[in-house]
Amino acid sequence: MAWEIYIQEYENYLKLERSLSENSVEAYVHDVAKLEQFLEISGAEVSPVQIELQHLIDFIEYINELGMTPHSQARIISGLKSFYKFMIYGGEVENDPTALLEAPKLGRKLPDVLSVEEINQILEVIDHSKPEGMRNRAMIETLYSSGLRVSELIGLKKSNILLDVGFLRVTGKGNKERLVPIGREALKFIKLYQEEVRCHLNIKNESRSILFLNRRGNQLSRQMVFIIIKDLVNTAGIKKTVSPHTFRHSFATHLIEGGADLRAVQEMLGHESITTTEIYTHLDRDYLKQVMKEFHPRS
């Protein structure tokens, strides 16, 4: 059977049985197509069922020589492994030729983490006498207190703040909702912002439900949050590269370094498993709140 037929069946499998998104399906299919193209270039007339480990090693060496990054190579290998899982699942092959195929080691640069002292430095330079100062304090307290993504922060609604139980209802990637504990300091400044600043804005109809607004009463943009943080970091004299995600990473790092359960931190971040694309084990909400209380520096 020709490569095209196997690839078409694999594409149907990804769409119908695994229900992957169009972009994911396209990426997986392209990975297999690259292998087919290499075999054609190298003159190796082998079908998918005839592939051996050496063919795959030669292919990886080829794309490495082309200058493909280790990260891209690892992604392609992952795609090939997925393809041969499908081949085994369909009974087309008995032995997986990708079983011993190793991905290149990825030199991953970890993002900067702010110390508790540096976070306090940033908070201290905020001018609370200005309306935007009170808003900015509430935003940064929220980012650091709950580990939100910037998209989750700007999309946060007033109704998402569950004051009585100390949680935020957050809509993350893929429109998946999760409940995240929020510290007392963050709640305090959110309340001050709502009572002293937000209530005086001329709020546009489409933004009435949104918590954090600009001076014109519209929802903040991602870019504006980046600019606000950059200005505060410069004023505080901190030389690290700091973005909204830095507060998310610092939130997780400080909890884990303090002794928090890794599963609880994963739950609060709303991370998905890389290998199974399923949400990590959901934990009891009282337990998450206890983790926050015990291990977060500003709880």
Order of helices and strands: HHHHHHHEEEHHHHH
Helix content: 40-55%
Let me know the CATH homologous superfamily of the largest domain: Intergrase catalytic core
Count of helical stretches: 12
Write down the CATH topology of the largest domain: hpI Integrase, Chain A
Give the biggest sheet. 3 strands, antiparallel
| Gross morphology | elongated
How large a portion of the residues is in β-strands, by DSSP E?
under 5%
* Domain unit count: 2
In short:
By secondary structure, the protein is mostly helical. It has twelve helices and three strands. Helix 2 crosses helix 4 (70-89), helix 6 (131-146) packs across helix 10 and helix 10 packs antiparallel against helix 11 (262-269).
List keywords for this structure.
299 residues, mainly alpha, DNA polymerase, domain 1, hpI Integrase, Chain A, three-stranded antiparallel sheet, 12 helices, elongated
Structure description:
Helix 6 packs across helix 10. The chain is elongated and about 75 Å long. It has helices at 3-17, 22-42, 53-65, 70-89, 116-124, 131-146, 150-154, 184-196, 222-236, 244-257, 262-269, 285-295, and strands at 161-162, 167-171, 177-181. It is 54% helix and 4% strand. It folds into two domains: 3-89, DNA polymerase, domain 1 (Orthogonal Bundle), CATH 1.10.150.130; 116-295, Orthogonal Bundle (hpI Integrase, Chain A), CATH 1.10.443. It has 299 residues and is mainly alpha-helical.
